[in-house]
Design a protein that fits this description.
The chain is built from 8 helices and 8 strands, in the order βααβββααααββαββα. The protein is α+β, with helices and mostly antiparallel strands. It has 2 domains: about 1-75 and about 225-274, no CATH class; about 75-220, Alpha-Beta Plaits (2-Layer Sandwich). A 4-stranded antiparallel β-sheet has the order 5-6-4-7. The protein is globular, with a radius of gyration of 21 Å.
Length: about 270
């Protein structure tokens, strides 16, 4: 949309430099630490970089380093996001899963392993073809949600959303920490997001909104953080990335922020295990 100022046209966008993105990502991770205690860093990383991202732990032991990898083969997907408007505490839900793992370590590890297998199956499908992903994704979503239910992180409103969307042929799972918050329903992959799939999404949306939920039709794998700079008519739209001293300063600031965030996360882990 335009800025409304005379002589200006639609805002131009450009991608921040890697140093600037690292700085933004570091500050976002600090906020995650405040809100969640010991976050993985995946949410802020994928929001900053865009697309899709795979998170892996370097080892099974507690405190092992995390590795983030972009999903180069991610295919465009349309999803219906439903906000249950039920508040939830990520800290409480994480503590609940931790308590389950302490009480039933073998069963909990088996559930974690099954969740990882679902993720691997998704990666194989999206790397294969749009047709394969379209065929397999709904079942993978249903399996994933069932595993999360077994871990105890669903809730009454989320289950209502899952059941209502299923009546219209949409596979749905909770997202985020669970307990409340949002659920995502698969509408389609690529061209499959149109036609009958779109009609099903519209029907499900009307039912869900009639129940008091808020729905948003959107896509997966969009851009990450961008500069939005309104430009005067006739001006060059491109915004130069920081260079020289500015880039070095941004990189240094990012290193400080990330170090502080890691220290905060380590302190939180130490407090949680004390």
């Amino acid at each position: 949309a335009g800025t409304g100022e005379e002589g200006c046209r639609e805002a131009e966008t450009s991608t921040p430099s890697s140093a600037a993105r690292e700085l933004i990502n570091g500050w976002a991770y600090c906020a995650e630490c405040i809100l969640h205690g010991t976050p993985s860093g995946l949410d802020n990383a994928v929001s900053c970089e865009g697309g899709g991202m795979r998170l892996q732990r370097a080892g099974r032991e507690s405190g092992a380093a995390l590795r983030f990898e972009p999903i180069a083969s991610l295919r465009p997907m349309t999803v219906l996001v439903t906000n249950t408007n039920v508040p939830r505490s990520t800290r409480r839900l994480v503590a609940k899963v931790r308590a389950l793992r302490d009480a039933q370590p073998a069963l909990t590890e088996a559930l974690f392993g099954a969740v990882a297998s679902v993720a691997e199956a998704f990666l194989a499908a999206t790397a294969s073809s749009e047709a394969r992903l379209s065929a397999e994704l709904p079942e993978l979503v249903r399996i994933n949600h069932g595993l999360l239910v077994s871990l105890g992180v669903s809730g009454a409103a989320l289950e209502d959303v899952v059941a209502t969307a299923a009546e219209h042929g949409l596979a749905t799972k909770l997202t985020g920490a669970g307990g409340g918050g949002c659920a995502i329903s698969v509408v389609g992959v690529g061209g499959a997001a149109r036609g009958e799939a779109s009609k099903s999404a519209d029907a499900a949306r009307r039912r869900l909104e009639a129940k008091g939920y808020n729905c948003h039709l959107t896509s997966v794998g969009g851009d990450g953080v961008l500069y939005h700079a309104p430009q005067a008519a006739g001006e060059t739209a491109a915004r130069a990335a920081p260079s020289g001293g500015l880039a070095r300063a941004a990189a240094a600031a990012a290193a400080v922020v990330v170090a502080a965030a890691l220290a905060a996360a380590a302190a939180a882990r130490s407090h949680a295990t004390a």
